[in-house]
Amino acid sequence: MFETATLFALLKGKNTEIRRIPIEQETLNDIRKLFSQLFTEFIMNKTEIEYNCSNGAYAIPDNDDEIFKIDDFRIHADIIRALRNTPAVIDFVMTADEIKALFIGEITKENDVESVKIVFQQFEPIQYIVTGKRWLVLNNNVFEYVGNKGLTIKESITAVYINGKFIFVRPFVTNRIFSLAQYYREATKEDIEKFANMTILHISNKETFIKNVEGSRNRKRIIFINSSILDMPHTPIEIQKIGKDLGIIINIKDNKIIVPDNKKELNTLLRFLAEDIYNGPLTQKIYKTNSKMTETGTTTS
What we know:
The chain is α+β, with helices and mostly antiparallel strands and 301 residues long. It is built from eight helices and 17 strands.
């Protein structure tokens, strides 16, 4: 499997931008073998469970031999186009592109029937090898200095796509690659009440809050937060610190997160709690996951 495949980077931002990662042939062959092995291990002897919002953002299957699935998953057409016409894909540029995920895949045909298999690995900032650090790599029991920029590949994967079926284990991590929001229902009045009554939150005016969360995006975020925030290991002070690192002001009162009455500030808080805001590790700018606009309002190329 993946004998002739190319490694791609799915970039962060509003548009589904893809870059081809140019790799020396022997190294690419090793990567192909690795992802082929991980693909097989990921799906082998697993019982598939239909995923929906009731499973929860932090949910994992009850048993090791179970795995979540979404049938008729709409993979973006640009990903399929990249597999069909790899030479047309622009090369990855280390200093300019922010990676959301790595993926490798293939399209095969048998008896005029196409089969599509893709492996996705959620990319973390720690996987960048950047300047300013001295990396020592073990080679034949001797450490060698690596001074160039680069990427590391994890020996694990996040999800696989097989002929319209999307398979994964951890919804919270998978959501960082592809939004699962469409598989979440919008929050009902009862869901909003549940959110408003969380002991971790302080809401001074519930009527204003309910008015401000009108709109499908915020209602879906509330469903996501309801299924995740109660499972978070973080205290309000810790959440405040994480927000500060992202340039987001989170105020605390009586050891509770103050939910702003201002609609714009509320939107930012809900984005943050639903993990829709991230820090670009190379540019150190703060982005929204469905936009290439920074939190200060400037755009990047």
